[in-house]
Each structure stands twice: as C-alpha cells, then as structure tokens.
Amino acid sequence: MSFRISTELRAGPGQFLTGLRDDDSLLRQVFFSILRHHHPNLAAKVDVIYALSQAWCTSQSDSDFELLVKYVSDLKPEERILVASSFSHMLNLHNLTEEVNSSQIGRAVRLGEMDSPTRDTNHSLLKLTAVNGLTPQQVYDSLCNQTVELVLTAHPTQALRASLLKKYAIVRRELDTLHSKRMSEYEKIETLEAIRAAVQAAWRTDEIRRSKPTPQDEMRSGLSYFSTVIFDVVPVFHRRVDTALEKMGLPRLPLDKALFKFGSWMGGDRDGNPNVTAETTRDVVVLARLEAVNTYFRQVESLMFDLSMWRCSPEMKELAERIAAAESREAARVAEERKKRNYADFWAPIPATEPFRVVLSHMRDRLYNTRQVLHQCLVHPNMSVRGALEEAGAYLDIEDMARPLKLMYDSLMSTGDASVANSRLLDLLRQLRTFGLSMMGLDIRQESSRHTEVMDAITTYLGLGSYASWDEQTRLKFLLDELQGKRPLMPPGMDMSPDVKEVVATFRMLSGLPSDSLGAYIISMAKTASDVLAVVLLQRESGVRPALRVVPLFETLEDLNNAPGTMTTLLSNDWYRAHINGMHECMIGYSDSGKDAGRLAAAWALYETQEKLVAVAAEYGIRLVLFHGRGGTVGRGGGPTHMAIRSQPSGTINGHLRVTVQGEIIEQQFGEKEVCFRTLDLYTSAVLEAALDPPPAPRQEWRDLMTRLATDSCDMYRSVVYRTPEFYEYFMQSTAASELGRLNIGSRPSSRKQGGIETLRAIPWIFAWTQQRLHLPVWLGIGEALEGAIAQGYQPVLQDMYANWPFFTSTLDLVEMVLAKADARLSAFYERTLVEGSLAPLGEKLRRLLAKTQQHILIVVRKNALLEGNTPSQMSTPNLDEKIRLRSPYVAPLNVLQALSLKGLRKFRELGHGGVEYNPSDPEIIDLLSRDPHKKGEGAQHPFVSAMDDCLMITIKGIAAGMQNTG
Amino acid sequence: MSFRISTELRAGPGQFLTGLRDDDSLLRQVFFSILRHHHPNLAAKVDVIYALSQAWCTSQSDSDFELLVKYVSDLKPEERILVASSFSHMLNLHNLTEEVNSSQIGRAVRLGEMDSPTRDTNHSLLKLTAVNGLTPQQVYDSLCNQTVELVLTAHPTQALRASLLKKYAIVRRELDTLHSKRMSEYEKIETLEAIRAAVQAAWRTDEIRRSKPTPQDEMRSGLSYFSTVIFDVVPVFHRRVDTALEKMGLPRLPLDKALFKFGSWMGGDRDGNPNVTAETTRDVVVLARLEAVNTYFRQVESLMFDLSMWRCSPEMKELAERIAAAESREAARVAEERKKRNYADFWAPIPATEPFRVVLSHMRDRLYNTRQVLHQCLVHPNMSVRGALEEAGAYLDIEDMARPLKLMYDSLMSTGDASVANSRLLDLLRQLRTFGLSMMGLDIRQESSRHTEVMDAITTYLGLGSYASWDEQTRLKFLLDELQGKRPLMPPGMDMSPDVKEVVATFRMLSGLPSDSLGAYIISMAKTASDVLAVVLLQRESGVRPALRVVPLFETLEDLNNAPGTMTTLLSNDWYRAHINGMHECMIGYSDSGKDAGRLAAAWALYETQEKLVAVAAEYGIRLVLFHGRGGTVGRGGGPTHMAIRSQPSGTINGHLRVTVQGEIIEQQFGEKEVCFRTLDLYTSAVLEAALDPPPAPRQEWRDLMTRLATDSCDMYRSVVYRTPEFYEYFMQSTAASELGRLNIGSRPSSRKQGGIETLRAIPWIFAWTQQRLHLPVWLGIGEALEGAIAQGYQPVLQDMYANWPFFTSTLDLVEMVLAKADARLSAFYERTLVEGSLAPLGEKLRRLLAKTQQHILIVVRKNALLEGNTPSQMSTPNLDEKIRLRSPYVAPLNVLQALSLKGLRKFRELGHGGVEYNPSDPEIIDLLSRDPHKKGEGAQHPFVSAMDDCLMITIKGIAAGMQNTG
Fold this sequence. Notes:
The structure is a homodimer of 967-residue chains.
Chain A: H1 15-38, H2 40-59, H3 62-73, H4 77-110, H5 125-132, H6 136-144, E1 147-152, H7 162-180, H8 185-203, H9 215-247, E2 260-264, H10 278-306, H11 314-329, H12 331-341, H13 355-379, H14 385-391, H15 399-414, H16 418-435, E3 441-447, H17 448-461, H18 472-484, H19 498-511, E4 518-524, H20 529-542, E5 549-554, H21 557-571, H22 574-580, E6 583-588, H23 591-597, H24 599-619, E7 623-628, H25 641-646, E8 656-661, H26 665-670, H27 673-692, H28 700-721, H29 727-734, H30 737-740, H31 762-771, H32 776-779, H33 782-791, H34 795-804, H35 806-821, H36 824-834, H37 840-861, H38 880-911, H39 923-929, H40 943-963
Parallel strand pairs in A: 1-2, 1-8, 2-3, 3-4, 4-5, 5-6, 6-7, 7-8
Helix pairs in contact in A: 1-2, 1-4, 1-8, 2-3, 2-38, 3-38, 4-7, 4-38, 4-40, 7-8, 9-10, 9-16, 9-27, 10-13, 10-16, 10-19, 11-13, 15-16, 17-19, 17-20, 18-20, 21-24, 23-24, 23-31, 24-28, 28-33, 33-37, 34-35, 35-37, 36-37, 36-38, 38-40
C-alpha cells in the first residue's frame, strides 16, 4: 500500500437547489400567465397577496401579518374562491417540482454524478461483507428469506381529484423530460406548450369533488398503479438486484423468489363505511383478477415473438408435440375459434417445430378463457367465481401457469440459451411470483361489534340466551365448544336485521372466491380473544375454505395494553394453536390510540405491546407477524420509511415486513417508474438491515424514563382534551371539524354517532388540527413530560436516548417535523376570528404549551432551531427545512381564507339571510357558484353559502397539500 | 448590412462514419461470441471465410477469389447451412447499424448539430419566400391543397420472418438507446445483455418460413405499423408543421386538413393469388375498422381525463345537458351496462357540470358498440358489415365522431382555452381526418381476363353469344347500352365455374362493406376500354353503391402505348364522363413493361404515357390522378423518394401523390417513430416542391434522342432475351429461377402457366438476376443505346440531359446504383458452376455488355468510378458507395454458397441417390435438417436435399438483404 495525494470531482454545490428554484419559478410563470390571460385583475391581487405572504414568512412581524389579513379580508366572495384556488394550484405545482427535483437527484445518484443525499450514506451489499464480517452467503440467504408486503389502502383524505392528478402527472413528466433529454428548439417549444396545456387544463377544472367516489372507483385507480407502473418496475428491480449479486460473485435470486407482495384494502375495508358490501368486495376481486389476466395476456403474446426457436429439451418437446397433436386433430375448429378471438397474431395452429409457441399459444387460449369467465362473473353477481373458473378450466391455481413457463426456462438453459431464458421469460416468472393471478391479496376489515351482533342474533334465535350479554368466559367456552365440534350452528331461514344479514352475506360470498385473491380478515377495535374466535367460527359456518387468517387490530390504548393478555388466552388454547399452525398475525394501529392518550403514550404503548406480543408468541413457539398501519400525513405516524423500520423493536421485523401504504403516499411512492424503483429499493435495503444488523435493544433506565414520559404526557394530554370542559367548545369553534363531515373526502363518515371528543374518529380529529396549524394531537403533553424529566436532571439521559435509540430518535424527529410546520400565529388568528372571547385564555394556554414543547424538544435533540440540518453531505439537495420554507408563502393565505370562510358560514347560519346581502348578477360568477350538480334546483343554496363552501373546500385541500411531505 | 469575419462549428469529420463502424464491430463481436459459444469450430471457419472474403473485396484479385471458393467448397452440407445462416445474420445486423446510423444523423440534424446529408440541401419553407418570390400565403395554400396517399402492399419478397424482424427491431432500439441516452454502468450492462439476448434469440430461430403466410397475416402485420407507429407520428408531424408555419407568421393547418391518407392492398389484391377470396377481403376490412375503433377508444378515454373543465359554449352546454338528461332518465341501466363493460373509469353517469366528459363518455359507449358489432361481423361471415353497423347505431359515418369533437374544440376556443383545445383534442381530430373509421382504404385488384370470363358466362347463358369472342367494338356497344339502361343483367341461379363464382361473390360482398373502407378497384393487365366498363357494369349489377372508382393498370409496353387511346375512348363517351364526375385515376406499373422491353424503354414509355394521359384528360376537362406502383428493391423502380418524385413529368403530380409502399420498404420507412417522422417529412417536402417549383419541361431534341435510346435499347434487349434461342436455357441454368417457385416468399405463385421467358412474372425474373449479381433486366440494352448515340456525337447532349433533366438523371442514377451492386466475377462463377460449357460464350457476351454499359454510363454521368460522390458536404456521412463496400464481404460468400447449393441440388436430381452419399448420424444435425413440419414422415427428403434446400433458401434471403438499400 502506498501514498499519493489524490483528487476527486462531484456535481457542483447547490446545483439541485437552484434546479428546484428554476422549476418552481418556471411553473409559477406559466401559471401566472394563464391566470393573467383569464382573470387579469385577479392575477394582480394574487401577486400582491403572494408578495405580502412572502414578506411575512421572511420577517415574521405582526405588521406584515396584519397587512396580509387586511388585504385578504377585502376580497369579494367569488374572488376568495379564485384566490384560494390559485394558491392551491401553485402549491400543487410547487410540490411536483420537489418530486421532479428528487427524481433528478435519483438519476444523478444512479449515474454516479453525486452521492445519495438521504441521511446516512448507503453502501452497497459489497461493503457489508467487508466491514461487518458477514459472508456474502449470509447476506444472500437473508435476502432470499425476506419479503416486503405493501398493502394499499383507500385515500381517506385523497385531496386531489383523479383528473387533476393526471394533469399534474403530465406536468411532472414533461418537466422531467425538459431536464433529462436533449431536444431541438421545436421539441422544446412543444414541451413547454404541453406543460402549459396541462396547467391550463388543471386550472380550468373544478377541483372540488362533487360526488363521493365509490369503492370500485378507488379500486380502479389503485389498479392503474399496478398496470402502468408497478407491474413493469418489479422485474426491472429484481434484475438490478441480480446484476449487483453477480458482481459480488453470488448467484441470481432463485427463480421463484419474490422480494415483494402486494395487498389492498380497497373494497375490502368495511369498517365504518356501509357502502362496502359483499357484492363490492366480490367486484373488486374479479376486477383485480381481470387486470392480472390482461397483463399476462400481453406478456404471453410478446413472448410468442421472442421464443421462436426450434431447439428444446426432450420434456419440452414432448409437451409441445402433445399440444400440437391435440390441436391438429381439430385444426379447423381451433383456427375458427382463434379467428373469433381476433388475436393480433398466430391464428393458425402452430407446428411443433416451434415448441415454445405451441405451449405459449395454448396458454394464451386459457388466459382468454379465464378473461371470459371473469367477465361473466362481473355480469352475473351471484356466480361463484371459484366455481366458474374451475368448470371452465380457466386459470385458478398459479402453478398451472408457472409449470410450463418453468419448463421453458429449463429447456432454454439446457440448450445453452441462457441469455434468452433470462430476459422476458424470467421477468414473467417473477411477475407471476409477485402478483399471482390475483394481482394482490384483498384484506377484509370489519369491526368486532358486528360479529358480536351476529352471534347474538344466532344464540337468541336458538334460545341459548343473548351472546351480547354473556361475559368473556362464557363466550370463550361456547365458541371453543362449537369450534371443536362438528355440528352446524347457523340455522337456515333465520330472520336477520339488515346489519346482520350483510355480515352473513359477506362470509358466504367469501367462500366462493379464489383464496389467492384474499389476504387477511382484520378485526378492527378488537378487544378480547372471543372477538377472534367468533370470526373463526363464522368463517367455518359459511364454508370459507381455506379460511382467512384472522388478524386482530388493537386500536385503543386499553386494547393495546390488553393485547398480550388477549393473545395469551388465544395461544394457550391447544385447538387454536393447531388451527393457526405456527404463525399468527396482529395489526397495531396508530391513530386511535394517539387520539385518547396523546402521541408519545401511544407510540410507547405500541412499542411495548409489540415486544410483549413477540414474547407471548415466542413462548408458544409461534412466529408472530406484525402488520403496521402507517398513516399518510405525518400526523398518523408516517415519516421517512426506513427510519420507521429501524425504530421498531428488534426482532419484530426479521425479514418479513407487512405495512400499509396510505393516502396520497401511493401517488408519491408509485406514481412514476423512477420513483417506484426507488421505493422498492428503500424498502429492500431497510428490511435487509433490520434483519442483519438490528438496532441494539434499549437500556433499562431508558425504558423506565420512557414509561414515565408516556404517563406524564398522557395525563397532561387527557387533562387538556378530556378534563378541560371548554376544550371541546374551543375545538369545535376554532377548527373546521364540524364542516369536515360534508367534505367528500374518502368513502366513510367521519364520526360514530354524536357528542364529545371521544366520539370523533381519529382521522378527522387530527386533520382538523392540522388544518389550523396547531397540530395539537401530535405534541400535546410531550412538552411537560420532557420538562419534568429535565427538571430532575434526566437531560443527559434524554439526549443519549435521542442519539442512540432509533425508536426515540424517530419519535422525536416526527414531532420536530410537525412542530416545524405548526404556526402559532396562524392558529391564534383562527381563534381571533372564530372563537368567542371567553375561550381565549385556553387558546393562549395551548400556544404556550406548544412553545414549551418546542423549547424542550430542542434541548433534547441538541439543536438551536427546528430541523437544523447538521450534516454537510446535504450540501446540495434542498433539505426539509428548506422545503417547508419554500412552501409556507403559499399556505399562509389559504389559512387566512379558511378562517374567514368559516366565520362567514357560521355567521350566515346564525343570522339566516339577514347577515349578508350578496347577490351577484354576473353570469360568469353565477356559473362559478353553481358547479355542484347536487345543489341545483331546490337543493340550491344562497350564493354566499356556496361561495364560502367552495372556498372552504379548496383551502382544506390546499392546506393538506401544503402539509404533506414529499419524498 | 456590414462585414465581419465569422466563425461556426460542425460535428467533427467522420464521426458518423466511425459511428457506423463501431456499431458494426460491436454487433459482429456479439454475434461471434454467440456463434463461438454454440459452434466453436464453425465460428473459426466463418472467421476465415470473412477474412478471405474481405481480402478479395479489397484486392479484387483472382487468386483471392479462388482461395475463397475453395475454402467454401470444402464445407460439409450442414456446415454450409450454418455458414450461410451466419453471413445472413451478420448482414442483417450490419443493415440495422446503417439504419441506426441514419437515425443518429436524423437526430443530429434535428438538434442542429449538423446539416442534413441528403444530396441537395433542404431549406425550410422560409427560404422559398425569399428566393423564389412566392408569398408565404401561396406556399400555405399549396400546402393546404396537397395530400400524399401511401398505399401499403404485401411483401412479395419480404425476406425476414416477422419474429426475426421483431428481434432486430429490439437490437435496433437498444443500440439507439446506447447512443442517445446517458446511462449508469448497470443500465449499460443490461442494455448490452438485452442486445445479446435478442441476437441470440434471432440466431437460434429458424429463419426459413416453413409455411405460406395468409393474407390476414400480412394484413395483421401491416396493421401493427399503424397502431404502434403511424397513428401517433401523424399528429406529431402535423404539429411540427404548425409550429413551423407559426414561426413564419402563418396560421395552423386547417382543422380538417390531412396531409396524408393511407391505403392498402393487403387482402384486396387478388391478382394471381387465389387465396384472396371475397371472405378474406371482408375480414381485412373488418379487422382494419376494429383496429381503428380500438385506437379511438383509447384516445377518447384519455381525453375524458383531460377535458374535465366545467366552462363551455352554449351549444356545448345544450348538447351535454341533453345527453346527461337522457342518461339520468335511466341511470341504473346505464351504470349497470357500463359495469358490464368494465371501463377503466367513469362508470357512473357523469353530471352535466362536466360537459366534455358527458359527451365523450357517450362517444365511448358508441365506440364500444361499434366494436361489438364488428366482432359479430368477424364471427358471422355473411352479416353485411354496413347493415350491421347501421342498425346497431354504431359509428359508420366519420362525421358522427367529428361533429361533437369539433363542437368541443370550438367550445374550448370560445372560452379562451386554446392551449387545451390544441393539444390532445387537436391530435384526435387530425387522426380522424387521416385514418377515418377504416384506418385505411382497401384497394381491390383483379386481372381483366377474370371479368371477361364473367361477362362471357353471362352472355352465353343469356344466349347473346360469347362475350369473350366479340371484338372490342361489339363489347363497347353492349356494355354502354347496358350501362345506360336500367334492366338487370345478371340472371339469378345462373350456374358458374368456380372462378366466375368467386368474382361474382367478391362484387356482391363489396356491396355490403362501408364505402370508406374501400379505395379503388384496380384492373391489372388492363388493355381496352371495355375492360374498364365491364367492371363498372359488374359493380352496378351487384349493387355496389357508391361504386368504387375503376382504375386501369397498364402493365405491358403495348398496353402503355395504347393507354392514351384507351382513355380517349372512355373519356369521349358522355355517359362515362358524367359517371366519373370530373376525376379519373390510372395506374402505371413498372415491372412488367421492364420485363419485355428493358428498363430504359419501359421508363420512357411510362414517361410519355403519363404525359399523353394527362393531355387526354385535360382535353376532356378531367383531372387525372396517376397512381404510381413503386417497387421495393431497385430493380422494380425504387430508389430515393424525392428523386423519384422530381423525375415525374411536370403536371402529373400537382399536389396529389398516390404511391405504393412495397416490400420491406414498409419496415424501413415506418418501422420506428423517428424514421416514420422523416418519411412523412420527405414526402411532404417533395410533393410541395413538385407543385410550386416544377422541374422544367424537357427540350425537343432530348425527347427525340430519348426515343431513339428507348428503341435501340429495346431492340437490343429483346434480341438478347427473346431472340437468342439459348438465352432461356442460360437463364434457367445460371439462376435459381426454377427453384424460386418453391420459396414461400409472398402469397402468390411465380409464373402464369409454363414455357419461355414471356410466361415468367416480372418479379421472379428480376429477382433471379439480382440473386446472381448480374442484374441483367436493369441495364441490358442501355449500353448499346448510349454507345450508338455517343458514336454519332450526342455525348454532350447526353451529358446535358443527365445534368438538367431530372427524369434522365434519376433513370441513370438508378442504373448506376445497380451496376455498383453488380459483380461480373460472381456472375461468371455461377456460370462456371452451373451452366454447360456450350452456353459459356453467351455468358461471356453478357458480361461484356455489362462492362460496356458501365463504361458508357460513366461517360454520360461524367464520373470515372461508379457512385463517385462528388460533393464535399457528404464529408461525414457514409455515402452509398461506402455502404455497398461495407456489405460486400458479407454477400460474396452467400453467392458462392448459393451457386454450390444449386449445383448440388441439380446433380442430385439428375443422378438420384447415386451422386452423393450423405447420411449424418449426429442427432443435432438430423434435427437441423428436419425443421420443416411439412416434410416429416413420407414427405421427408434425402438429408442432402433438405440441407441444400435450406442453404439455398437462406442464401436467397441473405443476398436479398445485401442488395437492398436502406435509407
């Protein structure tokens, strides 16, 4: 080894930061020129508001803020709509420049022009072998045993309408092209025109969704991510893994290894939304299978062109000749039939001298039949899907497709055609392993009380008493006796209430679906062991074979704390252990526990519960799988993926991650192929790490301190939320919570029955506070807990916990990130505008608590400003603090507009017509105010109301877009 | 205006020439490494043969040639197959590097990195206004009045199987990506692997097509060019024209202006191929309409996302509300129905607040119905397509689609949404104008004698005598009386021979097809006016309304010379003139006249005939359209497009060009989007030029000299071909003409009945000479004609004609190009190997004639070597001479192998088994020799025969690939 002074080059400083700025200003100019073109005078107002908002965001002075408020208040109602809409659009355009910018960075990283900017540097697989003393073989084995299952769930708060999403996707794509492709001047003119056309089209589209999307709609757009992006990226990613493995002298991944599986709740999640019925679920299953068949059909067709060779292995030859012989026996009929099907090519029976095509065209015919059968299932709602597929000899079992493809693969390998075998054929085999014939597994989710209702209806009908009034022990004994016996329980012709009938219909319908289309049966609000057994029994009664694995979802803090007990009860039962044969899955949710105990207590309860559950399972030699429901916006426990993965207690993931991908996260993580590639990349390396280099277990004194922090924050949280009588009033007056119900976001109602905070569902609760920028549910109580601990000299311990305990790190990072987005001044403005004076001291108190929380968080994380990025390698990419600051001039005016709209609407409701006289005569404005088809004719409202309504809706979407963090 | 010494930069010298070489050597290395992997010892032999062939191509010495021949002769039969196959593959790979190279050049030109290399520099529209004193408006008007109609015809000599074409397309695409995209090292590895996989797959595929393609197969692959390439490129091209027009202050092209129309013969051309039946034609019409509907369906669906705005014009609003009202009346049924159709989106009835979507989703439903109906037509062969479409209320008339789209366009323009109107909506309107609902117009082509047969069957049956034996005058009178009368002629239940029945069935079938799916009815071998009227009558009798325009195809020299007379007879008839209302189309073909009079006489006859036809038409105030059938390989009058267009007599094109795109030209001109764009580009500018700046008319003395040259060359040509008794023997012995019949190229037999040259069809006649590199039909007779003229001092006139008369220029350029590919030495080798000694002097004579022709051509074109490119701007692109030289080391071995195979086959036929004992026992070889499914079992041949057969087939394809000129 010798010495030499060396030199090296990197992409120059700040190039991507300016990139972000240039795109941002390009899109802003395009937007303004469109705005000026359609509403010249309004454009000038938007310009001034933006300038005032910017001045305030930089100076943070009261005078600037008052200037901004005064100016916005002087807007006429119809102007408020358009101004709100302008800022909402500018915000969305800004967000996608962030996405474009990060995919530029992705590309730069890949082309090796710079190191990857995410926090810790990534070394490739190669490095692990050198530094950690692990052999390549160990890393390879670990990789072969890991799967990541991503479960897509509906967009409860999916703010943007699909059509706007499409238009922004066009802008994003053209912008990206502008950066990465050399083009002639004409092409550049046409690209800029395409961008302009898309922005123009977006601006002229009504951005408020006027009718509720059906679950099938959701399923459709979910499916389109698969067919347009995910289906193609998965094999590319596997191929890239193979190339990397080869470079370090390891073999490719095994043929039947799939690093990813996909699941979905769309059309299966009936918790709280009545229009997910048995039929809906059936539809989405059929639709998903249809999508899968269509994509395989295309793959098989193009494989028919690729595999035109005549040499093959004897087994292959024998199969091809058998098929060719069968076809030539009725050549005319086959040709006739194919003609009807209007195949693109290969009508005539194919000679056995093209063995691969013979087999493939046979597969094509079966795929065509499968498609026909599935169509039939769509048309005739009560055909059993499984039955129909079986008797039509369609593809039902995936091995029917895998076997011949595998045979072709082996044949090509044996005749020395490895490079042909490892191209499109290998891709197809991998897609088959990843997506199967169902594309994804559909989870069914139902609330425990609905099953209790059914059992009660049965026991009452049979005169065994009322199941609902039995205590837990009686239920358990009854359920276990039934389960270990053979007698049918469900009496035919029992009359049922509609709710009971629906649950029973669902179970029956499940028995007719192919099992690979179904994932887990999730019981939300699961509290006791009987909740689980009831479902096991109901499945057996309805003939669901093979039964879905039953997954309890422990949501409230109480249920979480009892979860280990509940699981012990279950796993201690011999029959049940045999029934689950060695594996049990539990789901732990964030949102509800956060609502009634505060974020810290919820996170800690979750952490401990996971450990206890793992311990309970290990005690009975059961492999426990934890299903993580991760929220979209940070409020619901989102945040950068692999931080989240690292922060799990060790031993909870070990090679198998099942997690939900919620809300607009789907668009962000799977919207483009480039982005999707990176998503798969991040999950794979995060899980591999969790398995091979797990985070160290936390020290005892950290646990004790953490427990204390959890209790203190919980007490404080509850004393404010539940034991401060005027808190509810303050909440309902200072947020849009009461108006949220009417927003058509997501397909489920926002509260279970009336009265008090505890009746509010977690999502609207968090969403309401996010909108008014206090973000209370995330931080409330944490400040005091930390203050208490610091007061007794635990500061160094806390700092140590933050520095070395990933769980504590990611918990505080999340809170810090939210605090960076909170704005006490704006929240105070909501109060000033909407809350009656007597509640002001409460607001005053809440903002003090916010400032205190921030102050103590900064002490623990050792920064003197929120999000103060402290590692130099972030030099050239815009860091999070930067991103938030670039957005806030767009969000502030939306907050001001929202508060004013709420005031307008509430005053109007109080005074009836008297309060305001607003009667526009300009037809342009009348049209603007009557875009809601459901409010025409007698449903029409007073123009002022519909103006404020629309303005409110738009600001809600805009602020949501401003609060999300991309990438 | 002032002075300054200026500087400018160009792409450096030879960069593209090296580009060509690098790609060439890259693909050759990939191919050799695959060859070495599978057949190591054979690879070494191919290497030596290539080296020997290269040495000979550079030194042109006898000793090198004999070395090459000896080495090739020592190959074992199975080695010959593989060697032939190797060179054929290397040649195809080389050809696509030329294509890649020229699309690199295309890109470089577009990005302005270099000037375009084609011979004369192209200035843009702008320049015309400055130099030629034409106003922009004139240029604009001329552009608006021009259409180019491209008629795709089947691939009679389409050498490559579709599957090989696909694989080479992959190689071409990946190679292009390698050049134009920056990629990471991993991406580069994967691209090179993809190339390797495709080459490997191509090499392992049986390149001989073992069964004849059906017309529907041809139609299918023809259609795929539309859906994958042409359909998308046409609007992009129109958009580019608009952008250029805008830059010079002109408006966009009018909305309903289509610069291009497309036609096809695939499935309509029954001249000489019996398996194009009435049903076939119907199928292809339905298939084409299906393809069109499918593409419009996709366009409408994505437009539904784009046009989500709520503002629209009153007319638009009124239409949307009418549709929305109709749908909401039966909302449930509509939703139900859409559910069955499994639309990707927009199930539920759409509210009128989204007017564009309401109308578009209504269009989508009708498109869906249209598709269903067309499917039915495919399944039930005797449903009348037009009838079925009508009663189902499906789209039959294009205005049904254009009207609502136009309404949307006007609506968007009126609400100031021009940039939205001019994006995807404008593209769709243009596609509609270009492709209509039929995608293309199908021409029907039938031989005149088949109609004479039908008329004869009718008149005999009616006892009016035998039509076939009537003279022309009697026929004319009879036909005209019938046409001007109303009485039906065809008696029901007349019994017919199968040939007559087929013709009658075709006419009846035509009456049931939508008229926009049909183009012209072309009568091949048209000789007299009655040939035309017979078809007019037969159409009326069969109820073909509106009737297809009847286009006579004058093929032989005699028919060409009588064409003006024939047309005068027709146009002088008042009834007929009224019937054709102001427009008549004639088709003039090259190939046959070339066969019986030689190239020069044929070209001149064509030239004069066109002028006379135009004159005759002008005399009767009829606009004459000339339909040019342009061949594929040069032999059949191909050659660079706009030279060909410029060389037409002035006044024959004037803004309307109808031309066939034959053979592998389709793959070359429409295989990729980049190439397709350039094709449309070339045709547009060539036609615009012909209209605005026509070539000057030739001077009288040029005509007289040309007439002389034509007669002299014709006499000489005939004296050799028809009046040299042993010529036919020489031809049949020294070429593969007799074996060509069995080559499954193209779907039609190669000769009409037996005996002599005149029974041979033009295509095989030319093809046979191309294969043995004498190219006799192209140049025979030209040498003497020129020699005669030069001998009498016409040399300066000839040189003047070449320099200033585009017709003479392009005629001689074509001959020069062919001479550059001719190789007397190889032709002599065919003779030495295959022809009996007594015929040697004839061969000797033919080669002397070749040398003499070359010598005199060079005098006239003032070059001292063939293809001596004499303009410096060609500095950096490989010129034609270069291309030919780069290929010849690949072609020469194929010629040697072909001659040896022919000898082997013929000796075997003479001596039966006796001659050769070749009985391979190696199973690998036995497989190799039994890849033909039709020759299994009792159809099996002696292994030597099938070895030589395959070798022959492969060399024929290879040489064809070597003789074509790309780009």
